[in-house]
Amino acid sequence: MSDPVEFIRSAALGTRMTVRTRIEGGYTDAVGYLRERDAQHCLIETRRGMVTIAFADVHLAKEVPPPPPRRPPRAVPR
Fold this sequence. Notes:
CATH topology: SH3 type barrels
Distance between the termini: 56 Å
Oligomer: single chain
Structural class: mainly beta
Shape: elongated
Order of helices and strands: HEEEEE
Low-confidence stretches: none
């Protein structure tokens, strides 16, 4: 298995990825686009907003495909 932090550091900005981090009581995932990174953190743009992740908390990371297209709204019966 490759190092997840090295994957984030080498990925092109704009890459869609999932990053699993350790939190109190378990893990959480951030799925979105890599927008920024520095020596200690990365910034992932998710559907709910920007998430800053410390590399020290990263457990897993991998590239994921683009999201499926949104379904059209259902017609409301009259």
